[in-house]
User: What shape does this take?
Amino acid sequence: MLLHLGTNMWEQEGKKIAIRCMKECIDVGHAAGVEFAIIRTGYRCKTDDMFYSHIKGAADAKMDVGVYCYCMAATPAEARKEADYVLNLIKDCSLTYPIFYDMEDPSIENLSRTKLTNIAVAFLEKIKAAGYTAGIYANPAWLENRLNKEKLKGYDIWLAHWTGSPDKPSKYAYGQTMWQWGAGNVSGISGKVDCDICYVDYPSQAVKTTQTKTEKRKSTDFLNFRRKPSLKAEALGVIAPDTAVTVYPDETTTADGYVWIKTLFNGLTGYVAEKYLKKA
Assistant: This one.
């Protein structure tokens, strides 16, 4: 379960249809009608091989993006380490959906309810403190028997409960913001994918909390896209001439003889030399 795909198909109740994809490798841009992706970061603090490819594919397809971490932590300290890993991994990504903690692994299911709840809260607290929407992904067996739901108030719940149809509601009501109801087909993807309904307009929430001014610019030459404002910083990629990017005009830094401007490109945030940009 490396990637979840979804569409913004609003119904009268204000729902969205989401698609949770079980495939390990997907050309995200060919998933017809899909408007957001929730991408797995990895597990045991090891990044999935397709993570950056999926981030780029979602950005190229102009999808909204969220991520989830598969929990392997056996202690709160390990959970906080997983949270730190995720926060470091996505610091250059532009997310408009939550960061979820996927708790279902058999290796930890025999821990006590108190221990499992403390693990969940340790991860979620770290994510929320960093300014992101944090949520738990779990099935009813975990929510009923392995986690203390009272301790999870204040965090979003993504419920995994298959009923076989979006028209057959789950009997469980935990105040979930997303519900995985079963499997279906998506044009552009071979085979069935897991399907969900999302009840929250996460992108609108993200827009409301984002007040930073942005502008569209175009590159005038081949341009190194760097993690930090420095010629010595890691190159995240190369921007081809006449490529449109989003910049933050109020966030510039002078270093190494250049004025560097904070830039969003291919779903990542980094810096480019401003002199090689023009108005779009």
